[in-house]
Amino acid sequence: MRIPRITQDHLGAKSIFYIDGEICGSEGKHHMRNQMYVEAYFPHEQKYPWPVVFFHGAGQTNVNWLITPDGRMGWADYFVSKGYAVYLCEQPSRGRSAYHQEDNGPRMYHSLESLQRFMSDNGKWPQSCRHTQWPGEGTMAFEDEADRQFIASQVEYLIHNSDSQRLVKDCAVRLLREIGPSVLVTHSQAGPFGWLIADEVPELVKGIVALEPSGPPFSPDLSSSAALNYGIADLPLHYVPEIKSPEDFRLELMPSDNKERNPGWVLAEPAPKLPNLAGIPIFLIVSESSYHAGYDHLTSHVLNQCGVKHEFIRLEEQGLCGNGHMMMLEKNNCAVADLIMNKIKNIQ
Q1: Domain ranges of the chain
Q2: How does pLDDT run across 196-253, given as a tens digit for each residue?
Q3: What share of the chain is helix, strand, coil (3-state, %, to 5)?
Q4: pLDDT tens string 31-81
Q5: What residues are labeled active site?
Q6: Neighbours of 170 (CB within 10 A)
Q7: Domain covering 11-344 in this structure, CATH number
Q8: Strand residues in the chain grouped as ranges (E)
């Protein structure tokens, strides 16, 4: 095993702290629950006014932002080297944020077989064959060192997305009230975190970079028009007119005449709006060969219907080809980061 070493000459200061939770329990057995671990990194000279706050996805931790499986610089260091202050949030009940089974319920984990959708070029979706940026071999043999490092980094996570969304939203709102207006970077399962936080405290969210956010909207079941959630999140959002439950949505099936673009449920017009998200610079990014490549356009369509203007970015159309879902870990991770920084650098 080769132990990687990343120099940090660009690092001016760092911090580690918790957004504290609540004290609960019985006499002699009290404990804190639902706290969130945060680590922060600051450049010698902060060139941009808004910190960048990163939220990892399912089964992951802040390791996603710290280093790649083959030992190259991660996004946290790279953003700092370009003059950004960054905050990395580890979800409550995950990693270094304490988990209590009696309070938080059971957890689950990615099987080795399911991890193939992040690593392989032999998935069950048509774009998978173009996946060339994974830094390991990405095979079920699991003999490659980078593959094994990625597998070793996986952890358990809460079964219900609604629980994760509630816990993160509560902690993240408190974090932003402490550090001030920020740009949020969300990935995968964390996609709804960005929408929910901005819906709660829009004045503290200067921008959102949504990397392949959870989807497709409402339901993946094309046989039933019943919404299973609030479209872009599992928790209620401030829709106008008010949506009190998923049953209030009126949906229609958006067809597709492209074998690489899935049909899916979108809102029937006139669609309810999300005024708290309107006006926030939002960049929804999807890679060429991810399983998200077939359905993230549905999330983009629903955002547009809700009056949430944003830029929908397919990496291959920007000259960044061959990426999968874990773009922050792949061979061209710094090129993807450059694209993001170019989008957010002029946010006012």
Answers
A1: 11-344
A2: 999 999 999 999 999 999 999 999 999 999 999 999 999 999 999 999 999 999 999 9
A3: 30, 20, 50
A4: 999 999 999 999 999 999 999 999 999 999 999 999 999 999 999 999 999
A5: 188
A6: 19
A7: 3.40.50.1820
A8: 11-19, 22-24, 31-33, 36-43, 52-55, 86-90, 107-108, 157-158, 182-187, 205-211, 251-254, 264-267, 282-286, 311-314
